[in-house]
Amino acid sequence: MKKLILLACLFLIGKGGALAGNLPANYVVLLDLSDRILQPEQAKRDQELIRIVFETFEQKVRNNLIINSKDRFRIAVAPQKSMSVLPGLDELYLDMGKVPFAQKRSRLEALKRDLPAKVARLYAAALAGRRKPADFTGSDLWLYANNNLPSDLETGYTNTWIILTDGYFDFEKNSNVLCEGHRCTDSSVLDRLRKMPDWRKALAARDEGLLQIKKPLPPLSVYVAEMRAKREYLGEMDMLTGVWQKWLGEMGVRRMKYGSREGLLKSADLLRSFLKT
């Protein structure tokens, strides 16, 4: 009888976690490889945060006994006009639901083993020949969210979007900015808000903020990590966070959190705490 109960439990788990009521997890890590990676130790910090996300993904897979896992992990890079396709990016994606049972354990362990070196090579390629901010065109976070994010998310999954960025939508030499009224795909909204006596009231206006993403998205949680104020404006971080909060809220995101660029141990703990809840 005990064996029959155990087999029934395994069958239900294999059918998608019906017994536990858990959806498979989909982790998408978006990298902003703009001039922010010129900051001291930034590549090292990003790589540690990526490791923490993968660690969470791995634990989720193992909780599903590996062979029953349909969980997903992906590293994506925000588009940059000055940067061609980065090497090895396709190797930083693992969909356990599409891996044959006999290969699931080996594929998981192979990515765990190779991930640090592959991510390090990715950052090295992004920095190659670039030593100053003018060498970068800026990462188009909006373009990724509009063109790529809908297909990187999945209905029927617990979608978690981790964004490693300073928080700005800057284009040093890129004129490909879209606008509808005051709403644009770059950080020009911040320039206007700094001039306002009450930036919160101004940001609440219908025709203010980042250009809205109008494509439907499945439910997702968002963590914006490594945000850093570039201007010495009083309340810059609050303003930057407010712009993100309105933009994500208009996408339908209800669970979002923001982490500033602080000590690495604190940043790592904040990310772990978000991923656990």
TrEMBL record:
- Residues spanning the signal sequence: 1-20
What keywords is this UniProt entry annotated with?
Answer: Signal
Record bears the keyword Signal: yes
**Presence of keyword Signal:** yes
* Top-level taxon of origin: Bacteria
**Descriptive protein name:** VWFA domain-containing protein
